[in-house]
Design goal:
single chain; about 325 residues; alpha/beta; Spore Coat Polysaccharide Biosynthesis Protein SpsA, Chain A; 2 domains; seven-stranded mixed β-sheet; about 50% helix
């Protein structure tokens, strides 16, 4: 099969028939063998009924229905697990992503050798309250992830080589960082294509401003786990040791200042009356806790059953013993 199209959706019953016809028209015009996997994320409207009717008319249209609303990331992960096409395309169900982009995205994966191609909505039909935070968010994501060539991490229109979606796990709200997840999994050929962005035709956006706050928190989580997930002592141990050493030096300085003043007959105060003594003790305590957190993290990582699970792309002449 050439292409699997994964469409996560929530309360998009009005747009589904038009989207299905549009995808079918593009696929037939380009003679692609294909499947469309609609993942109904607990919709409360008639979305599932519409998907059922569409599937009866065209067996290439398939559906998965969640019992309740879990979010876009679980919907994508479920669709990825079921995708059989050589190239997997994701798009939103609100008709803001154009299926006419599919042939070129497919070509970039199959002919230019990209592992992942992300859409870039250069001209957006969104209010400033959405576009300005989006630009700030993407600038931060580029800096943290090191993927400098992407302008729109959160664009729903993306294309993947099949083995990419089989080797990444999209959970929580991590769909915003699928290119980074792919990079962490060893898929470094990541490209971008300028795509057409259409104004929403039906309904309203299902995402609020809280996604920007959550997005930064998720980015911090991915950065930390990607860099220190397998070696937590390198982070906690380093900072813990530095804090303990600084606190210890500060305690020694406070004691030496008192001894010096005593020896020269100067006025002095008790060590326990100095605020610097307690600040020093706090640094030492925090440093010890950081160090112990890293030590416990190392014990957990060492005893993990997946500690030696590495992504192997290909093998030649290897016999498993």
């Amino acid at each position: 099969m050439d292409i699997s199209v994964v469409v996560p959706l929530y309360n998009e019953a009005e747009s589904l028939p038009e989207l299905a016809q549009w995808i079918e028209r593009v696929m037939l015009a380009n003679k692609f063998s294909y499947e469309v996997i609609f993942v109904n994320d607990g919709s409360t409207d008639d979305s599932w009924r519409v998907i059922t009717e569409l599937s009866r008319r065209n067996p290439a249209l398939k559906g998965v229905c969640f019992r309740r609303n879990y979010g876009k990331s679980p919907a994508l992960n479920t669709g990825f697990a079921r995708a059989q096409g050589d190239v997997v395309i994701t798009m939103d169900a609100d008709l803001q992503d154009s299926p006419d982009e599919i042939p070129e995205l497919y070509r970039m994966i199959t002919e230019e050798g990209y592992d992942l191609v992300s859409g870039y909505k250069q001209k957006r039909y969104d209010p400033l309250s959405k576009t300005i935070p989006t630009k700030l968010f993407n600038a931060t994501a580029r800096r943290v992830t090191g993927i400098k060539n992407l302008h729109d991490f959160n664009c729903g229109l993306k294309a993947y080589r099949n083995k990419v979606v089989k080797h990444i796990e999209v959970y929580g709200d991590m769909h915003r960082y699928i290119p980074y997840l792919a990079k962490l999994a060893g898929f470094s050929r990541i490209g971008e294509k300028v795509v057409h962005h259409q104004a929403r035709k039906y309904g309203t956006s299902k995402f609020g401003l809280d996604r920007f706050v959550n997005g930064y928190l998720d980015l911090a989580t991915l950065w930390f786990t990607g860099k220190f997930g397998g070696k937590p002592m390198h982070f906690f141990g380093l900072f813990g040791s530095l804090m303990f050493i600084l606190g210890f030096i500060a305690v020694v300085v406070v004691g030496c200042v008192k001894l010096y003043n005593m020896h020269h007959g100067n006025h002095y105060i008790l060590v326990t009356d100095s605020p610097y003594f307690y600040l020093s003790l706090t640094l030492m305590l925090l440093g010890s806790q950081f160090f112990l957190a890293g030590f416990i993290g190392e014990l957990i990582a060492r005893n993990s059953p997946r500690r030696n699970d590495y992504e192997i792309d290909e093998e030649i002449g290897i016999t498993q013993s």
